[in-house]
Design brief:
With 186 residues, the protein is an all-alpha fold. The chain has one domain: Ferritin, core subunit, four-helix bundle (Ferritin, Up-down Bundle). It contains six helices and no strands. Helix 2 runs antiparallel to helix 5 and helix 3 runs antiparallel to helix 6. The radius of gyration is 18 Å and the shape is elongated. The structure holds fe (ii) ion.
């Protein structure tokens, strides 16, 4: 019993440790843009988590575009395509913001799996039905919003307006996706 109780906490600790390990030392030590190295590191760590969430959601949305079946096929196949195409473009902006802050951007499946708060899908032998897909994407978009809000506070406290702007615009979009997807289930 106590083992089960401890499980989520251990997972959370592991996640935090992974985040600290993945964003390494500064890659451009001479940067002086008016934000301290320590603040830039904190923002870069947060943006790395956000990038991992955004990438995982992008992949999930593209996966469902490929594998959706049923009477809703055409509507969802098209809707998912619009969303993953827009999300794909945004990933580049997030990664390049991390670089502009002087840190390396995570870019491997291993990094994303460690950093993301969104659970990856099972393999292709377990394709969910369309309603489960939509539910998964509602949860995924909501998770991206929670991470964006968290990082936004860090960026705002450090006076990092470009990161605040970018996160605000991503929040608007992911909240809209969550609403549109949620509406399919009502
Ligand atoms: Fe396609």
């Amino acid at each position: 019993m106590s083992k089960n109780k401890d499980k989520p906490k251990r997972k959370d600790d592991k996640h935090q440790k992974a985040v600290a390990e993945i964003v390494p030392s500064v890659t451009s030590p001479d940067i002086d843009i008016g934000i301290s190295t320590n603040d830039r590191r904190k923002i870069a760590q947060g943006l790395s988590r956000f990038l991992a969430d955004a990438y995982t959601l992008y992949l999930k949305t593209h996966n469902y575009h490929w594998n959706v079946t049923g009477t809703m096929f055409t509507a969802l196949h098209t809707m998912f395509e619009g969303q993953y195409t827009e999300q794909w473009q945004a990933l580049d902006e997030i990664a390049e913001r991390i670089r502009a802050l002087g840190f390396a951007a995570p870019g491997s499946y291993a990094d994303f799996a460690r950093l993301s708060s969104i659970r990856d899908d099972a393999d292709a032998s377990e394709v969910p039905d369309w309603k489960t897909m939509v539910q998964q994407l509602v949860s995924g978009n909501e998770a991206v919003c929670r991470t964006a809000r968290d990082v936004l506070k860090t960026a705002d406290n450090a006076g990092d307006d470009p990161s605040v702007d970018m996160l605000t615009s991503r929040l608007q979009i992911h909240e809209k996706y969550a609403w549109m997807l949620r509406s399919l289930l009502e």
